[in-house]
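dude i think i finally got it to work??
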Amino acid sequence: MKTIIQSVLVVLLVCGAASVLAKDYYVAQDGQTPTLPYTNGWTSAASNIQDAVIQVPSGSLGPHTVWVRPGHYTMSTNVTTYNDEGSVVTTNVVFISTRDIRLRATSTNPADTIIDGGGLYRGIKIIIGTTLTPAYTVVVDGFTISNCYAKSYGGGGVYVDGNSKTWTCMVQNCAIVYNASAAGVSGGGGLYNYEIGASAACALTVSNCVIASNNAFGTGTGSGGAGLKFQSASLVLPRPRVIGCRIEGNTASGDFGGGVFANWANLENCIIRNNYVSGKGGGIHNENAYVSLTNTLICNNTANGGGGAVYFRNANELTGYELELVNCTLAGNIALGSYSGGITLLNSNICQASIVNSIKGVSM
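look at this
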């Protein structure tokens, strides 16, 4: 009996400690008396998002929530005070590094709460530098991320660096629009996710978002993915998931992927339309890996090269890579080059493609 009581007390103490760690932080652009650490309600809220993010303890589990009232948020004038972030913060409006954090807009309309890079800075960069048990979770919920620009690494709106660590990231209920990645960087004008490790990866989910009117400039193998770009150095699990998103009107001046560049991803219940690429894969470009599409509409995309809807390229001619379409509709896609306006499979004797209950309309 004594052992049971001790065990119960340990559980209660652990749960109690977790609840003490969890804190709420507040951001209001019109806040009158910002007071550190911005945890005492709206009267002492920070006036800039990054000012509150930096107060969340680095390396500790929460969950901590940063609540953001409607406003138009730009680069903080206090960047020199972020001593544990280093110079990296000067290129991002919001920089989340090794923090267990939920960044949430209080309004249910993303148009009310805007993160604006002024055409000079990336919107949000997220990277986890260490691994904790249980793993970190980072949530970005309810923002418009617009007019942002990536000068390095890609991801003009959002850059998620998996950093070979096990953690979870969710970008949800956001509008990622009118952002760009510069020529000579890694593409992903709207969002770029990079996984470098072979043994661990970020479990990234992008859900209920609009990814529109973004640009990926430049040419070459590292370019493309004007809307979304998912790039993995190896075939690690879990795969990124895109759920219930509208990916439209994005333009890649480079070689691959007007809407999406992915070499490791699952897309479900999405609309991918009116995207353009100077090269191949107007809607989606799949490079040397596994991509599945379920209940997804791919329409009116244009590739100046091939694969107006989907371009699947297995350049290494290795086995085990697959393109899978289930309950999808492809219509009105155009390829101006010599390849198909619908789906182009390069090295198709090696590629494994599965198309189930899908409709291919008129493509040119």
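The longest strand covers residues 284-294.
im so relieved honestly
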